[in-house]
Amino acid sequence: MSMAIPVRKFDAVIVGAGGAGLRAALQLSEAGLKTAVLSKVFPTRSHTVAAQGGVSASLGNSEPDHWHWHMYDTVKGSDWLGDQDAIEFMCREAPNVVVELEHFGMPFDRNADGTIYQRPFGGHMSNFGEKPVRRACAAADRTGHAMLHALYQRNVRANTQFFVEWMALDLVRDAEGNVQGVVAMEMETSEIYVFQAKATLFATGGAGRIYASSTNAFINTGDGLGMAARAGIPLEDMEFWQFHPTGVAGAGVLITEGVRGEGGILRNAQGERFMERYAPNAKDLASRDVVSRAMVTEINEGRGCGPNKDHVLLDITHLDPEVIMSKLPGIREISIKFAGVDPIKAPIPVVPTCHYQMGGIPTNYKGEVVVDGNTVKGFYAAGEVACASVHGANRLGTNSLLDLLVFGKSSGNSMIDFIKTAPKDLPELHKADVERSVARVERLNNQKNGSNVHEARDAMQRTMQAHCGVFRFKDMLAKGVEKILEVEKMVQTTEIADKSKTFNTARIEALELENLIEVAKATMISANARTESRGAHVRDDAADTPENPNGRDDQNWLKHTLWHRDGNRLDYKAVNMKPLTVETIALKTRSY
Amino acid sequence: MSMQTVKFRIYRYDPDKDAKPYMQDISVEVDPSTERKLLDALVKLKVVDESLSFRRSCREGVCGSDAMNINGKNGLACITDIDTLKQPIEVRPLPGLPVIRDLIVDMTQFFKQYHSIKPYVINDTPAPDRERLQSQEDRKELDGLYECILCACCSTSCPSFWWNPDKFVGPAGLLAAYRFIADTRDTATNERLDNLEDPYRLFRCHTIMNCVDVCPKELNPTKAIGKIKELMLKRVA
Ligand SMILES: Cc1cc2nc3c(=O)[nH]c(=O)nc-3n(C[C@H](O)[C@H](O)[C@H](O)COP(=O)(O)OP(=O)(O)OC[C@H]3O[C@@H](n4cnc5c(N)ncnc54)[C@H](O)[C@@H]3O)c2cc1C
Ligand code: SF4
Ligand code: SF4
Ligand code: FES
Fold it and tell me: What dotted CATH number matches A15-222+356-429?
């Protein structure tokens, strides 16, 4: 392969046009910097569009609230694995970025006094954990759609330059490890280009497609994580995956927690409101990991519903149909289309479903990527692909959309500062990484007698689902590691029959699988090593003892995991327990 | 688990190898207990024939990726039930837009029209410290407008858009135009009306209603167009 790869030059390259990428792009475009935003799909098709319930901010529009309470809830929700500097930063910034979003044109629902409507959500409490508080700012149950469109629209106004249906393939780093941009493929033509820039941001979203059943879109294939891992960047806390309590049984499509915020109740086969037993205070609005585990326990103990006793029911039949129609219209639509029930009349069958990755590319609260205590020059990450870490071992609902706004903006600002001080001319392009990326595509194009993409993906998804789910077992994890390394071998030899250069989605899926497998390995290997239970990661061999309540072992495991692709090596770093201005939120046993 | 056969007649065209488009007869087995949507069947088909090309992402009707022409009517594959469709299911790309490959069309013209209506809130008064207030009634005016997912089902079913895709804004763009006119926070109504006061941009709509008929989000572009026309008349009076 010759090196006739064309190079396009920018001040900044942003990979991803979901909430995080668009929020960052706005900062850069409005600062007048030459910015390219790449996306596999038209921006408003990014999966942020599917977010339903709300975006958190302590606006206090219907009752007293404070960012410090929000911070407390987030630290507690994270099971103390979140970094308290980043959490303070996010919760303090929340009211600003949400008000700003309103100014951008976001069609929030309104209270009678004209302020932004807020609803209760799981784990969000007033006065340091006392009782549920209305903190989730919402546009019906289409908050993500409204937000993504508003951000896209604001970018149209700012003349942001988009490269739509371009897939980034690999990161380009120079000999010192500084980031120079990405290699990317135009999907329509299969042409490969280098996008060189002073600053590069990954905002590629989640990777829920490593599991067989997920609330995530087809395109959520962890490309940013795969690219980072191949370029030698470790991935942080990948064992922590949130299983959302209420995916539609069988379909995986999400039913927002906002349904429970509006008064929805979970019931088992006996019609019992079982959450009263597991979380006497917060009940159905306990943190997601707690609710998901309660549901699986009910099902495992034979109190599941339906002919196979394999799900529970989410009941809103007692709510005023008017409330359902005005506050939860999208949910009603989903329930009718995917569960075949009108929730005004009958409860919705639900089951915990893979939803959100708490881990990701290690960053600080400025969006700078940090490895071994040093920032990687020119490299930034924000949104679900990043690990700041504000969500720790378990994310609170509505904190992700907030994360996109806060860290999208802060990373944009950091990039502006960096670009301003960088030399005017771009340095010479470091070709080794470009060649490596091109070779990867060539391998795929020329593979003979290889494995089947669909079969390899299927094997990966089934392995993750069976070996690394809501409850985790020592032996299953160990076997899971072996199996996933077997699957990796299949992925290394995938073959496609379709050689067309025009919009070749078979090739794209094969390339996506090469990213997914990195995420799957990171997850399984990190989970196998963490021999405690914390947040969303719960193991049978980490028992509830007086020293380690709920199986959480702060003595040995109050630390972030870092998985390195090279040799599947793991190392660890301390959790930042020191907030920016307030006092540390001290370790406590978590109960709701 | 008994499998069920689904028969298709699908539009195929790969410019790399096909001199011209053709219809392919093909069938696939689905498990009706879990694979109920047309998109499920297409994804299955792609396992059998990986060269079949179509866009898809959210698989729940919110991203607008998988609009196509299904048995003669535009819709989203991911929310269309297989058992409501006559077989063989005839699947074609959205009409009126250039085909890139199979079911993938070039949407450039569609988005150009969307961008032409300045799809963002314009308000040059200094922003307050807190949110701009909006009454619940005023906010209600945006319902039925802001939910558009830009799937293009409507515009590509509109004869006026087929004939003048470069000049007629089309139902999706006009719905968006009215979304901003109707927003009490937007101060550019006059400018927006000026932008549409043109024999083509707005007035090519002849109220044929195809758009309303196909919108998967049950939105009503015709009504929005009517409201814009009303405002224009009022302005003259
Ligand atoms: C169904 C559902 C409901 C949710 N509801 C809520 C909620 O109510 N509140 C909340 O706070 N959170 C919610 N979440 C979580 C939240 O929506 C996501 O975490 C968040 O939207 C992710 O945003 P993002 O910008 O990081 O990524 P995304 O929105 O997923 O965008 C990723 C972008 O990266 C691009 N991309 C990816 N790979 C490449 C590549 N290789 N090359 C080029 N471009 C690429 C994609 O095209 C896309 O533009 C929900 C999640 C789901 C799945
Ligand atoms: S009503 Fe107007 S916009 Fe809608 S299809 Fe007919 S001509 Fe087109
Ligand atoms: S108005 Fe309806 S059919 Fe038209 S683009 Fe929007 S959602 Fe699609
Ligand atoms: S795949 Fe998103 S609308 Fe159908």
Answer: 3.50.50.60
Question: Which residue, A13, A316, A346, is CA-closest to A160?
Answer: A13
Residues forming CATH 3.90.700.10 domain(s) in chain A: 241-353
Strand partners, A290: none
Residue B162 C-alpha, separation from nearest chain A C-alpha, in angstroms: 22
Q: Where are the alpha helices (DSSP H) in A422-504?
A: 431-446, 453-467, 474-492
Give me the average pLDDT of each 10-residue run along chain A (592 residues). Answer: 81 98 98 98 98 96 97 97 98 98 98 97 94 96 97 98 98 97 98 98 98 95 98 98 93 90 94 95 90 92 92 95 92 92 95 96 98 97 98 96 98 98 94 96 97 97 93 95 98 97 98 98 98 95 89 96 98 98 95 85
CATH number of A433-574: 1.20.58.100
The token duo for A41 is 């799909």
Largest Cα separation within chain A, whole Å, is: 69
State the Cα–Cα distance between residues A419 and A416, nearest whole angstrom.
5
B20, burial (CB in 10 Å: exposed 0-12, middle 13-18, buried 19+)? exposed
Helix, strand, coil percentages in chain A from 3-state DSSP, rounded to 5:
40, 25, 40
Which residues in chain A are classed under CATH 1.20.58.100?
433-574
Asked if A503's CB is within 8 angstroms of B135's CB, the reply is no
pLDDT tens column, A299-344 = 999 999 999 899 999 999 999 999 999 999 999 999 999 999 999 9
**A386-387 and A361-362 strand pairing:** parallel
Q: Sort A30 into a burial class: Cβ within 10 Å, 0-12 / 13-18 / 19+.
A: middle
As a CATH number, domain A241-353 is: 3.90.700.10
Which of B69, B111, B142, B153 for mutating ligand 3's site (highest number of atoms within 8 Å of CB)? B153
Torsion angle (degrees, nearest 10) of CA B52, B58, B63, B65: 0
Tell me the shortest Cα–Cα distance from B44 to chain A, in angstroms: 10
Rg of chain B, C-alpha, whole Å: 20
Q: Which residue among B55, B60, B81 is best mutated to probe the pocket of ligand 4, counting the most ligand atoms within 8 A of its Cβ?
A: B60
Is any ligand 1 atom within 6 A of the Cβ of residue A538?
Answer: no
Q: Encoding tokens for residue B90? A: 């005839």
Minimum-distance ligand 4 atom for the alpha carbon of B79: 4
Q: Is the CB of B76 under 6 A from ligand 4?
A: yes
Residue-range domain boundaries for chain B: 4-105, 108-236
Which of B181, B186, B188, B194 lies closest to B121, judged by CA?
B186
**What three-state secondary structure class fits A564?**
strand
Task: Domain B4-105: give its CATH code.
Answer: 3.10.20.30
Q: Which CATH superfamily is domain B108-236 in?
A: Alpha-helical ferredoxin (1.10.1060.10)
pTM for the full predicted model: 0.96
Q: Which two tokens stand for residue A558?
A: 């109050």
